[in-house]
Amino acid sequence: LLFYPMIAATAGLLSGAQMIRLFHDQLVNKPAGLMERDSSVGWHVDAAYWQTATSRSLLTAWIPFQDCDEAMGPIAVVDCSHLWPDNEWMKTFNDRDLEKLEQSFRTNGEKIEKIPLTLKKGQVSFHHCRTIHGSMPNRSQRDRLAFAIHLQDETNHYRKHVDAKGKETLHINDLLCRRGPDGLPDYSDPEICPVLWEAPVGVAV
Q: Which one, of 112, 128, 116, lies nearest residue 14 by Cα?
């Protein structure tokens, strides 16, 4: 799936990029039978975890490994929230109080519309790195297994970032990627962040 060309090509068309590289990937299991509070995922923004990335055109492809209805707690997005400023503080994946988090959205005066992405096996959804998203509890009798592929455009590179407490931000890529001539992590390292798609020569995306 990581190297399936249609996924990266779709990310390229959505972002307007000339090249798509892997940024990171995660296999996520939401087991059945947990307490509801323990199987929800807090509203959060991916960009909050990717402060060392210069680009804000990063996308995530979310791929369920089974039909995923609302009972399974599919990924849910807040419509158009990628256009709202000032939500990159939302490093709140593990905050299970979804209602309280909703009160803290900086909506730019827009209405909050939450959309569960109920997908069939074989379907893929894409969301922007600034999209507010999370998921409700898995109330079904089956584990919910999904693959998240985080994708970067050709302009993305590492930048040093220090949080509000003065601590330098670290992404797992910073430990895995080779170092460039400047001694900084190289997010174009072909071993860790391989190219998955390039726009055809002479074709505008």
A: 128
